[in-house]
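Field: sequence (string)
Field: structure_tokens (string)

Example rows 1 and 2, in order.
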Amino acid sequence: MTDPEVWDCLVIGAGPVGSVTAWKLAEMERSVLLIEKRPEIGVPVRCGEGISKQMLDMVGLEADPSWISSEMDGAIIYSPSGLELELGPEIAGPEVGYVIRRELFDQELARRAARAGAKVRVRTEALSMKRKGDVWIVNLRTMKGQVRVKARIVVAADGYESQVSRWAGLDTSLSIRDMESCIQYEMVGIDVRGRYTEFFLGKDIAPGGYIWCFPKGDDIANVGIGINGSLIKEKADPKEHLDRFISENPRFSKGTITEINAGGVSVCLPLTKTISEAFLSVGDAARMIDPLTGGGVYNGCFAAIQAAITIDEALRSGDISEKGLAAYEVRWREGIESEMIKNYLAKEKLIDISDEVLDKVIEAISEYDLSEISTGELLKAIGARYPEVLEITDL
């Protein structure tokens, strides 16, 4: 297939969200160009590599052993003093899923987009764009030099820093309190807790965040940390906290680091506006990362599907104005925004909560069968025992 003079849609960024957007649009027989500035999709890995089974069902992708490291049955949360709260599959929700090889997963989604008809180009970076008439003129840097392409609609899927969203006039400002600095090791020769993801909480452990352990096999796991930006005193704080945790924990101290990844993640509310004329922002670029967990794949892919549906409708109607794309705002917000707001408020509480109170929360929760008690009943029971906890945890 030769390139069209004007693409129906240019998707900038070939992470999971960009690829799903392009894949679904191509299935609707839209001409789609998906570009990725890096030479290899999915590299470097910048996440804990956990995804939920619900996410795969949502996008229509079957689990494949070629990119799955292990399957999870639940999650274990550790309080600052070491109390354990085990969450089974009926409660853990998104934490019941798979730990994957993220680079292979990302590449599979890009292949799905290509097989559906999208044109995928790596080592292709967007340099600038401007609106001219009824199309976007986008300057790209490619391996063959600079080129210009025309697109009726542009989708920003270029991550939480999203220069593309700023080009389109969206406000992407971010406070330091709404950022987490993260570093992760892949470690081999450690003790893992079977098919459970693990989360370690506490101000001394991970100020304003947590340490995670995502098993990838019998003795291998991703062990990482996220620290809230407002609580970082020195640039190396995340690494120093993670190294200390590993050295003091016999389960991990005997292990060997085989890979290191680092980066930032937003833990804020989503953008107040994710559309403009002939433009949509999706996933991390629209700040759709879960503010509490730092996970963004499910939310982003949900929005990607809504974006594809809306773009197809707008192109069919001939109205690709901001008004013509307004359905996208309604769709994704109805689906995920309320949960994001709730988790943002929880994140804000956890930044300030003391280790003593956090211990009380986890101790109190662990005494109840979470599969048989409602959230309201649980809060009432905790409040009866620890009134000061209820004051802090009431969202």
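Row 2 begins here:
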Amino acid sequence: MIVLEDYTYIYPGRSEPALDGVTLHVRQGEVILVTGPTGAGKTTLCLAASGILRHEFGGTSTGKARLLGRPVEEFRDLSEIGRHVGVVFDDPEAQLIFTTVEEEIASGLEGLDLPRDELNARMEHVLELTATTDLRERAPHTLSGGQKQRVAIAATLALGTEILVLDEPTSELDEEGTRMLFRILQRLRSEGKTVLLVEHKLDALFDLADRMIFLERGRILAEGTPDELLREDRIRSVLHTTPETPSFCRTPKVCLQKPDVPASSPLIRIEGLVHDYSGVTALKGLDLEIEAGSLVAVIGDNGSGKTTLIKHLVGLLKPTQGRVIVGDHDTRAETITCMARHVGLVFQNPDTMLFEETVEREVAFGPTNLGMEDVRGRVEQALAEVGLLAHRDEYPRSLSRGERQRLAIACILAMAPEVIVLDEPTTGLDAAESARIMTLVSRLRDEGRTIVMVTHNMRIVEDYADRIVLLEHGRLVADSQNGGEELICQRFYSTFREPASSIA
């Protein structure tokens, strides 16, 4: 189904290969798990295997790439390839372009030349399968990250292609959404579909994957069953493993507020916050105060209101009711430009923030746009702080995922806001790069910055957060600072306790 033979690929403007002499044969009906450290070439492998590199990116390649027995260059275009290969990227927002969820799914179905009854039946099937039926009339831009990811998966499944290429499909999914996807993959496997899957959440895939590929620096360093590869200490050390029950759940009622964070008047005050999206209420009278110099983790299932909340902090959204005050600034009365001086938002996908031709220009854009002094000095300091000074003249999109995440943080640091908001800062990163990001975040907190972090990673929460805030259905239902640890543990303990292999 997919064949790469001694395949090497170099992106435009780069000298080092992203893939280096890769040979991979994927047979019909196989589920292949691709993993490795951040920047190993996993996404590039997906793009090569699906023919997208050849037809969309340009660059230089040597060796052979074949799809369904044909060289990828023989396919007319991506539209022809799309009849056989469905792709879900790690950034679902890039795939969603229509005004409603139903239109997103229907857009692909309409090109299949199927009877209307069959199209409707397939639509209803994928909506039910991906738990998106209740979202069908919603505009994609109003959905949470996890909901967008489920819609992207639904739109791809609806096509019924023989091959599925999934690049970090669980990156924005909560635990229930992740279980849903793994159940879908089990079903596709039983139907004889071929699946190439890049994923860091490995445990639940051990019984599903026929083979596991370990990439590093663009080369396949190991190949075998998951059990075989994970016997190697070096491979285990760079991959995420199932965490133990977090200490705050093993010892309930332990306050997470660090003792060296002094009490002070709150820097952020959220009072009676309500936000409606065209009749859908995402936040329902939320009250929250956050002190300066703290690192607060905001957790909750997909659709609980986390992203809606943090967009209010930077003024991207205005309250339907209630108010949000940062320092002396009421976001209802301030422009986004004004709020950018005080609050910086690092999006989950760093590519959303990157558009300049060099790393240096990327970081300089914000302080220049705000009319700040000593822009050059700000850029130097920010790049040094995130460890990217040596990359100042490089094209931002050519950096690894972890480097791009650090670059996005540098763009915010150059504007020196009092508050930094991070939306899933470790998504798609290996253990080492995740630790590097969070060490940087902790240092910023220790320097007096206030950090508000949205995450699904409970190990990150345990290791780094001063405080946990739990949202459900647009309401704040638990706060570790006010005796909410027990409820938080009730909601998330099963995530740590249940063996991943038991997922059916």
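free_text_note (row 2): The chain has 18 helices and 20 strands.
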